[in-house]
Amino acid sequence: MNSILWLKAFHVIFMVAWFAGIFYLPRIFVNHAESNEPLVHQQLKGMERRLLFFVTPFAIFTVLLGIAIIYQYGYPWFVAAKWLHIKITLVVLLLIYHGYCFKLVKTFAADKNTRSGKFYRFFNEIPVIILFVVIILAYVKPF
Fold first, then answer.
1. In sequence order, what DSSP letters do the residues of 76-90 get, joined into one string?
2. Are 124 and 41 a contacting pair, CB within 8 Å?
3. Which end of the chain is more exposed for a tag (fewer CB within 10 A), N or C?
C-alpha cells in the first residue's frame, strides 16, 4: 500500500504543475489577442511556446502515474470504480484541450489569430471546471 501512496503523491504533484501551466497559457493568449504591439507579440510568442513545452512532460507524467495507480489497485477495482471512468473521460478531454493549445500556439506564431481576448477568457475556464469535477470525483467518489 505504501507504493500506491507514493504514486498518488507524485500523481498529484505532476497534476498541480500541469494545471498551473494550463491555467496560465490561456491568460497569455488573452494578452496576445488584446495587444497590437509587435514587440509584445514577439515576447508572448516565445512565452507561449516555452510554457506549453515546459508543461507537456507534467501532463505525460500525470497520465503515466494515473495508469500505474490503476494497475496497482487492479482490474476488479477499476471495473467497480465508476467515478474513475468519468475522471478518465475528463482527463482525455483535458488532453484534447492541451493538444488544441499546440494548435493555438502555432496560430499565434503565424500571426493568424482571429479570436478575441474574450474567447480566450472563456477558453481559460475549461480546465478550471474539469479540475473541480475531477477533484470531487477523486475525493468524494460519488459513484
1. HHHHH-HHHHHHHHH
2. no
3. N
Distance CA(3)–CA(140), nearest Å, equals: 22
Q: Over the stretch 11-46, which tens digit does the pLDDT of each residue have?
A: 999 999 999 999 999 999 999 999 999 999 999 999
How far apart CA 64 and CA 76 sit, in angstroms, is 20
Q: 57-114: per-residue pLDDT in tens?
A: 999 999 999 999 999 999 999 999 999 999 999 999 999 999 999 999 999 999 999 9
What is the C-alpha to C-alpha distance for residues 127 and 123, in angstroms, rounded to an integer? Answer: 8
DSSP alpha helix (H) spans, the chain: 2-34, 38-73, 75-80, 82-109, 117-123, 125-140
Q: Give, in order, the Cα–Cα distances in Å from 108 to each of 45, 51, 116.
A: 7, 14, 12
Q: What is the pLDDT of residue 1?
A: 59
Alpha carbon distances (Å) from 27 to 22, 31, 60, 101: 9, 6, 22, 12
